[in-house]
Structure formats: structure tokens, C-alpha cells
Amino acid sequence: MKTFGSFAKERSRRLGRNQKTLAEQLGVSPAYVSQIFTGKKNPPDLGRPRNRAQLRTWAEFLAASEDEILDLVRFELHRVPPRPSAKFPKIRELLLKRLNARDKGLMDEVRSMELHPAENRVIQAMVQIYMILQEEPDEGRAYSPTRFKEFCNRARSNREFIDEELVRFLQDKPFSWAWDSEVDDVRVFAEASTIREAMETLAKILSDTPGFTYARTIPMVGHVSAGMGFEFTDGGFAAGEGFEQVEIPPGVDPSFAQRLYCVRVRGDSLQEFFGDGTLLFIKPESWEEVKDGDLVIFKNRSDGRAFVKKVEFVGESLLLKSMNPMYKNIVLAKRELMLLERVMAIVL
Q: Which of 239, 236, 240, 287 is nearest to 262 (CA)?
């Protein structure tokens, strides 16, 4: 990952902007700005409330988002891993603009995950509404509720559909939404009559089908291995594979489950313990909670591959123990890791 100074220097050069102008805008000396650009001084901690004005100035001068600036600064000063890229960036921005009451805490949560449970729920609702509105009203229902659910799930795994077609469909539709974390669900508030009518149709479809509900789900975002490792693609899967949702594991409180994501074990490197296809449910941003003996997934900075191992702390380093004797244990310094998160539940 680039240092803040190298990023600022490169961006300033590309934009044709000089350090003296930036220094004047910040109210500091040109020498101070030069030392940040060359890495001789650390950048200011722009995440602090008192530095809010500075953050805005840096972002405007570098023509970058405040989030991008903060990711660089937090990593350089505190070794905080950057936030993952959104699975569906275009619809995320649209949905955050339509979030009821502009809940800042929820917005920060959403931006910290590849696909937040609230975001996933409202996308699910919007896909359902879109599918209902594609039906010809004079021809009656073309599909059973079960088939309808299958079509919706298939559509939700199509990145181009979600980030292009669905975004175009929603842009001129006045609606807002809110997240109720207690019941793990979203509420959609529609001003457009077309959306209200579609929601009424959906309610009727679901109520007419005894026992037919959408299971509460957790996003499955990638694959891990004890041996060779697997890379995460932009969509969270091995290349060529799609996104899916898996049901909450038995015994897990749904109010807690909304904070989890899931990965699937690939290969037979862990077959003595759990085989190919086993689901591991992970708590994001749980680095500080990891303790000796925990099962974790981790990625190092050298190749970005994901592995699952048991962890033991040895001073400032981590001993990552393989559960299969065919594979070596790994010793890494904390700074060499870009991901270290706890496995909270296992479904064989």
C-alpha cells in the first residue's frame, strides 16, 4: 500500500498543483508539506475530530475522497487495514443517499464492509420490486413464489445487473429505507406509486404461501485453505464463481449474525478436521479479539492469499499453526498481515 506522502506527491504532480499552494491552504510552512511528501514526517492524524478541516483541505487539494485519504493515514499511523471495496459500489452510493435520517453510524458500518447485511437486505428488496414490475399485469403471475425467489437470488448474484440495470431503475424512483438491527431487516418507504404497488403485491405473494419466508442469511465472500491458499477476487470469490448467501448457523443469535460473513473451505488440506465445502463464519474487524488457540483466517501482504490456521502469539509475531502436518507452520510479524479475523462458528 502506498504511503500517504507518495500518494500526495504523485496526485499533486498529476493535477499540476504545487506544495506552496497547499501549505497556504493548510496554514503551515511549505517545508512541513515537503517533509510529508518525502516521508520525512508522518502525516497528521486526520481521523481526529479536531483535524476535520485539514482533512477536507487535503481531500479537495488532492481531488480524492475523504475516505481514501483516511485509509492511507490510518494505515500509515496505526496499521489499520484499509476498508474493503464495495461489492456493488454504484448501488451502495445510491442507497446511502436514500438512507432514512442519514444514519452516520450505519453509513460508516456499511462502508467498512464489502457487503453489509443492511445493504444486502435492501438490495434484496429492490430486486424483488424490480422483478414484480417486469411482470405483465394483464397476464397474471408467471411464476410460483419458489421460482420467483430463485429468479431474485440469481439476479442478486449478477454484478452487472445490480450495479447498472437496477441503479438505472431506482435513480428516478423516490424512496428511502431504514435498518432495524433488532429484527435483522429493512423497511422501505416509497413515495412512488409503482413501488408501493409492487410492495403490496410482494406482501400478498408471501402471505399466500404458508411457510414461505426468506431465510436470514449471511454473505459468503470467498474461499480459504490450509495449504495452497486462495485469492479473493473483487467480488470476494475465486475467479469465475458467483456470490451467494448462506443461512445463519444453528445456535447463532440473528442479532449477532448480521455482523458475520462466511467463507468456504476449499480442498482436502483440512479433511482430518473438516472437509471440502465446510463453511466458516467470521467476525469482521476482530483482530483485537483474537487470542491464543483461536481458529483464524489470515492474509499476508506478500501475495494476498487467504488461509485458515490456529494462532499463537509470540511477542510481536504470530505463529500460525497448520492443522495438517503436511503443511508448515508460518511465523509472521503483525505488520506483515493485512487480515486476521476470528472464526466464530463452523458448519460441516
A: 236
Q: Which of 337, 237, 342 has its CA nearest to residue 293?
A: 342
Q: What is the tally of helices (H) and strands (E) in the chain?
A: 13, 12
Q: Which residues contact 13 (CB under 8 A, 6 or more apart)?
A: none
Report the alpha-carbon distance of residue 243 to residue 49 in Å, rounded. Answer: 37
Tell me the pLDDT tens digit for each residue of 67-100. 888 888 888 888 776 667 788 989 999 999 888 7
Quote the CA–CA distance of 302 and 258 in Å, as a whole number: 31
Q: Any idea what the Cα angle at residue 190 is, between residues 188 and 193, rounded to 5°?
A: 140
Beta bridge partners of 314: 317
DSSP output for 34-90: HHHHHTSSPPP-TTSGGGHHHHHHHHHHHT--HHHHHHHHHHHHH-PPPPPPPSSHH
Residue 265 phi/psi, 5-degree rounding, is -75, 135
pLDDT tens-digit profile of 313-338? 888 788 888 766 677 788 888 888 87
Cβ atoms of residues 305 and 269 within 8 Å: no
Asked if 275 and 310 touch (Cβ cutoff 8 Å), the reply is no
Q: By 3-state DSSP, what share of the chain in percent is helix, strand and coil, each rounded to 5?
A: 40, 20, 35
C-alpha span between 226 and 278 (Å, rounded) = 13
Answer whether 290's CB lies under 8 Å from 311's CB. yes
CA dist 280 and 220 (Å) reads: 9
The CA–CA distances, whole Å, from 315 to 253, 318, 331, 332 equal 35, 8, 11, 11
